[in-house]
């Protein structure tokens, strides 16, 4: 698998994929790239005193089978945290939190096929009550 890293990275860049995991038998290769045009520390978040009622959908980055990582509802997450995966045999694409916030319940069941852009979760800036 290591001999394919350069071509995999090129494919990831063309498809705007930032996280990739490939399983081949007992071997696993995981790649994570910084998105183009972003600084490493640039994050979308709710600022103190800002709009704490903001709500952000977390959308599926690809079409495939949704896999939950079992995070509890109302958990605080940070931009870049992995919230789940989309399995596209044999590729696994991470579902990434787009901002800091509080995680709402999963809107799709684990194992169900989802489309590109389907809303999987919502994040809110306000703490749950």
TrEMBL record:
Residues 43-57 have a biased composition (Polar residues). Residues 35-67 are annotated as: Disordered. Gene3D superfamilies: 2.40.50.100. InterPro entries: Single_hybrid_motif. This is Biotin carboxyl carrier protein. The lineage of its organism: Bacteria, Pseudomonadati, Pseudomonadota, Alphaproteobacteria, Acetobacterales.
